[in-house]
Amino acid sequence: MEELKTVIKEQGKVLPGNILKVNSFLNHQIDPKLMYRIGQTFAEYFKNLGITKVLTVEASGIAPAVMTGLAMEVPVVFARKSKSLVVKNDVYSAEVYSYTKKFPNHIYIEKQFLTSDDKVLIIDDFLANGEATKGLIKIADAANADIAGIGIVIEKTFQPGGQYLRDQGYNVLSLAQIASLENNQVKFAN
Amino acid sequence: MEELKTVIKEQGKVLPGNILKVNSFLNHQIDPKLMYRIGQTFAEYFKNLGITKVLTVEASGIAPAVMTGLAMEVPVVFARKSKSLVVKNDVYSAEVYSYTKKFPNHIYIEKQFLTSDDKVLIIDDFLANGEATKGLIKIADAANADIAGIGIVIEKTFQPGGQYLRDQGYNVLSLAQIASLENNQVKFAN
């Protein structure tokens, strides 16, 4: 998505530790019109797959996910984060290790919002090691929901999450793929 | 907003402790089309005030805020939550006591995203005691930003937050006002 790449080039800041800071339009300040077009792009790519629900994780996934749900005319469910494991009969949960924060989070979704009748589209803002996405897959699997696709706003292709998901056979669309952040420069794949 | 009241009546669940659970369309599962119309309603009411930015708090405020930002064509900034006080030169922060969770949270916004040139519209999903809204007001005041209005999806008028904010002179629009949850019944104001 060329518009997204342009915004990343203009506003993204590279920090030590292969961190790309995009908090001027994606995960602190949000550009709603850009999110709208991101939602339309995901909806166009994943159309005709019978998707019934969009899944994401709070907080940064919500804006792109809700715009995708708007374009696809389906509900959005965001997994909630918890410091401790949530073991209740009425929730599906998964552990998600945060490489940035160096500790495990737990995420959970109430069972009533995800069933074996659902075909889900997973949406997230970033894909690096893929921990959050794997957590959502684990939750969808526990509900026996089909996973019809995975839509990522920004993928770091030099980290293993994207390759792992494609090797597992998932239909992954990343709107911007970053091949390297070396020398504080954003280098896109292809 | 009649559509919202209808959805609350149909899907809202009253739990002990004056809790109204609306997680089927607002704060766990989200109805994107309803959020879109909520955003349009806020944008219509607060138009012509020169608003430059929508402010909210993660996570449940993001969906209505981003739809409001879309309709008003302005950026959205969501305050991030932290268990501990964030004291850094580059952030404004405030303490927010959670009556539901019985402990204080801290919220913060990076200074670069809020300045004295801004006229902000505060958006949140719930207004009860008003703690989250007061936290956002404190942050906006610290930035010397003008507060042009406060838009709330669901206000519990039997708790003091709304009255407090109106007494302070703020322009508050609540799309659904709940006067009582007694006997597990949702009773709207007026």
TrEMBL record, chains A, B:
Subcellular localization: Cytoplasm
For the ligand (5-phospho-alpha-D-ribose 1-diphosphate), the binding residues are A128, N129, G130, E131, A132
Q: Which residues bind xanthine?
A: L20, N27, K156
Q: Which Gene3D superfamilies does UniProt cross-reference here? A: 3.40.50.2020
In its keyword annotation, does this UniProt entry include Glycosyltransferase? yes
One GO cellular component term, please give it.
cytoplasm
Report the protein name in the record.
Xanthine phosphoribosyltransferase
* Known EC number: 2.4.2.22
* Subunit text: Homodimer.
Report the record's Gene Ontology biological process terms.
purine ribonucleoside salvage; xanthine metabolic process; XMP salvage
Q: Does the keyword Cytoplasm apply?
A: yes
Highest rank taxon of the organism: Bacteria
> What does UniProt list as this organism's lineage?
Bacteria, Bacillati, Bacillota, Bacilli, Lactobacillales
**Keywords per UniProt:** Cytoplasm, Glycosyltransferase, Purine salvage, Transferase
Gene Ontology molecular function: any one: xanthine phosphoribosyltransferase activity
Instruction: Give the pathway annotation.
Output: Purine metabolism; XMP biosynthesis via salvage pathway; XMP from xanthine: step 1/1
Q: What job does the chain carry out? A: Converts the preformed base xanthine, a product of nucleic acid breakdown, to xanthosine 5'-monophosphate (XMP), so it can be reused for RNA or DNA synthesis.
Q: Which family does it belong to?
A: Belongs to the purine/pyrimidine phosphoribosyltransferase family. Xpt subfamily.
Reaction(s) catalysed by this chain, per the record, are: XMP + diphosphate = xanthine + 5-phospho-alpha-D-ribose 1-diphosphate
